[in-house]
């Protein structure tokens, strides 16, 4: 895999000095090449104050350039576009890093240049999940397929159209393993089945299925009390609902109730 990037490198014309030639670089006379000036101030009889500051004459570099490099105009670096080849291998994992030594933006005042570090981040797939070199896939099948079998098709990561033949009864969340169909054929493909149940059944179908499927033993309900049920809806608690719950005795004080002053 090849990528292009923009980075700063040392100017090749002046070798990162910023001057047209080495003879045009002189030592700053204001700071004697230290890049620092010392200021002494008398505060009073017998009291002196000494402070250090960056030399304004050479901007703290300790050197002065008499004639600037025409290629970088004294900046010492130039911008360039570089192409690099990423050595992507089959066994690389999410978060793994590729390091190119000395390939960071160059600093002309540094003795050692930094490295370019590229971190690999896997993008999520809508159907497949990777765990090491194994792939996990959830497949929806009908209840009729779970009980009676049949062909179930899916598309692999490499766009191959594949199918498996169900020959046994599939229970909810049952998993099947297909060897050597994981990442780069070095892992396995684990298929987890999600059985789609019908929303409604007619009385005719219920009677038909009741004859075919295993039956539960009869229950004597003469001494039982019947309970009615409704569809469960997951509650969505907002801050206001939580305050109302606390006001009903949930162990807190609602926001609109103030304590009486003693």
List strands and helices in order, with pairings:
Layout: E1 2-10, E2 25-27, E3 36-44, E4 47-54, E5 63-65, E6 77-85, E7 97-100, E8 116-119, E9 128-131, E10 134-142, H1 143-148, E11 150-155, E12 161-166, E13 175-178, E14 189-196, H2 203-212, H3 239-250
Parallel strand pairs: 10-14
Antiparallel strand pairs: 1-6, 2-5, 3-4, 7-8, 9-10, 11-12, 13-14
Offer a few descriptive terms.
HSP40/DNAj peptide-binding domain; disordered C terminus; mainly beta; two-stranded antiparallel ribbon; 4-stranded mixed sheet
Descriptive account of the structure:
The structure is a single chain. The chain starts with a strand and ends in a 12-residue tail after the last helix. A four-stranded mixed sheet has the order 9-10-14-13. Among the domains are: 1-14 and 74-122, HSP40/DNAj peptide-binding domain, CATH 2.60.260; 22-66, no CATH class; 128-196, Sandwich (HSP40/DNAj peptide-binding domain). Helix content is 11%, strand content 33%. The chain is mainly beta and 262 residues long.
Sheet/helix structural class: mainly beta
Instruction: Give unreliable regions as ranges.
Output: 251-262
Name the average pLDDT. Answer: 83
Q: What is the CATH domain class of the domain at 128-196?
A: Mainly Beta
How far is the first residue's CA from the last residue's CA? 75 Å
The main sheet comes to: 4 strands, mixed
Query: In the CATH scheme, what's the topology name of the domain at 128-196?
Result: HSP40/DNAj peptide-binding domain
What is the N-to-C order of secondary-structure elements (H for helix, E for strand)? EEEEEEEEEEHEEEEHH
Quaternary: single chain
Q: What portion of residues belong to β-strands?
A: 25-35%
- Please give the number of β-strands: 14
- What portion of residues is helical? 10-25%
- Can you say what the CATH homologous superfamily of the domain at 128-196 is? Urease metallochaperone UreE, N-terminal domain
* SS field, number of helical segments: 3
Gross CATH architecture of the domain at 128-196 = Sandwich
